[in-house]
Amino acid sequence: MTSKEVRQKYLEFFKKRRHAIIPSSPIIPENDPTTLFTGSGMQPMIPYLLGQKHPLGTRIADSQKSFRTVDIDEVGDNRHTTFFEMLGNWSLGDYFKKEQIPWIFEFLTKEIGIDPEKLYVTTFIGDDKNNIPKDTETAEIWKGLFEKAGVDAKDVEIGSEKNGYELGMQEGRIFYYDVSKNWWSRAGVPDKMPVGEPGGPDTEMFYRFTDLAHDTKYGKYCHPNCDCGQFIEIGNNVFMEYKKNVDGTFSKLPQRNVDFGGGLERIIAASINTPDIFQIDIFKQIINTLERLSGRSYHDQKYTASFRVIADHVRAASFLMADGVNPSNTDQGYFTRRLIRRAVRFWDKLGIQKGGLAELVGPLLNFYQDSYPLVYEKREQIKDEVASEEERFRQTLARGLKHFNELTGNLITGQDAFILFTTYGFPVEVTQELAKERVMKVDMGEYDKAMKEHQALSRSGSEQKFKGGLADHSKQTVQYHTTHHILLKALQSVLGPEVHQRGSNITAERLRIDFASPRKMTDDEKKKVEEIVNQKIQENLPVIRTVMKKEDAENFGAEHEFNANYPEMVTIYSVGPKDATIGEPKIKEAFSIEFCGGPHVTNTEEIAHTGVFKIIKEEAVATGIRRIKAVVV
């Protein structure tokens, strides 16, 4: 069954059951500063799940474009992708378990034709600590459906994922797991939920590839939540019926909701019984094109991962750019850039000598001509952007080679390899190959440690709202955030280097900075600060994001928060100089350098378009602490 058929069947199935079919929301969340990307079909529905009335009623269904940054480094295996489509349906205070579970079972087994013998489900074991009962109702509904289909449906208590590896399948069909696996809320498990947050137990559906043997490196026994690849989750019903109270207890919501999410690509893979998601029709044209260009076979295990990374990353980058996220050093644009540059690395691994990644955009988007015509219409623009980014990256690689040639001795430290990768975009595989040619070794243990810290930093910085005093991620707030950096440096220039930030608060209307200073500023000093800030804004200076070792950032004189505990690897933002570029930031020549998680404008000209910087108030807030409020109008 093709992806178009599965998507169409799903939407028609729920349309017949009186659901309004809505179009996919953009990959960039609207009015949601808590995350950079739409990572699930549920995300755009949160206001309605919380009680806001949906203009189309209480039954909604769609296929949502989704992107998850945390999976970038996982791509290359048989089931991970960064971009995917999430089939979703919602009951907003309408139907509940008795309707939803039979509908999904019918859709999977009758409409899609999945063998019920290959389906396994999980449900909620309960949470005694928070007085939330075991979800036996869901288990009984599943048991009746399986038995009606002629499938034995024994239920088994597992508890934690760890227990699963010790207990195994036990001839079960329905498995009870704890809050870490079968509870859903935006904040995670019940204990982490804030007051007023909704959540509830869920039931997940897994397809079992019975031809695959369990890999014991993951655990002694296999179970539905095992990572060995024998099971793949294809859908999840969330029964959102609880909210957290002020006293920490849980009570029932007045409106019970259903939130279903099913991965389109995974459902298609299950329908044709392939554990390799890259064997479905979506990726056929792009993989065929890669085979023709490289002369390699996708099924040659030496090259399979390269095919998968390129196919996923070009698709994800194309959809991101179609929604306006071009490669850049900003938070969202950073991921588009990272996708393209990682794809280039694997393109080179395939040994392709002619052409570039842009040649894949046409075959890919031709496939989506009917399903996503607006994306298809932007294919030439996307091709040009991919080609330009690849060219920039190859220039960066050349600069990385220059830096590599400056390394001496017989050992390349893990930090050197890490800096080659993060600052120059130089793949560690290339570093290893060149080192081997020169009878040098690379400290991969130190490199892997630095990368893990970097990935943890990237995830916490990219998936969550910036916690440095920003009210939101609106354009105006982001402009004020960068202006804030310039202002601090201007204050140091006028009042002296002993001036340091002691607090901030930035909204779309104004910025506020608290700073250490023993006295009130004179009118002349305030005027000089305004002149410096406006001069730098008018100079159209690039704003560059760089990840580096903390001590290196400190050596550059990067400003950082008083008494803050920073990790070994940090993100800094530098303003200027005029010719600074990504990959080779001229940090020493920058006007302003600060430890910061972002987000920022890419160039100060974005601020200059808004108006002129002006201090509206300067006052004392504590002994030795002054406060400035300022605007750009």
Helix and strand layout, with pairings?
Elements: H1 3-15, E1 20-21, H2 46-49, E2 59-67, E3 83-92, H3 97-111, E4 119-124, H4 136-148, E5 155-159, H5 161-167, E6 174-177, H6 179-182, E7 183-184, E8 198-208, E9 231-244, E10 250-263, H7 264-271, H8 284-294, H9 304-322, H10 331-349, H11 358-367, H12 373-377, H13 379-405, E11 411-412, H14 414-422, H15 428-437, E12 441-442, H16 444-462, H17 475-495, E13 501-506, E14 511-516, H18 523-538, E15 543-549, H19 550-555, E16 569-575, E17 592-595, H20 605-608, E18 613-622, E19 625-632
Parallel strand pairs: 1-2, 4-6, 5-6, 11-12
Antiparallel strand pairs: 2-3, 3-10, 4-8, 7-8, 8-9, 9-10, 13-14, 14-19, 15-16, 16-17, 18-19
Overall mean pLDDT stands at 89
Strand content: 15-25%
**What overall geometry do the principal axes of the alpha carbons give?**
globular
Helix content: 25-40%
Q: What's the CATH architecture name of the largest domain?
A: 2-Layer Sandwich
Number of strands: 19
Using the CA coordinates, give the radius of gyration.
27 Å
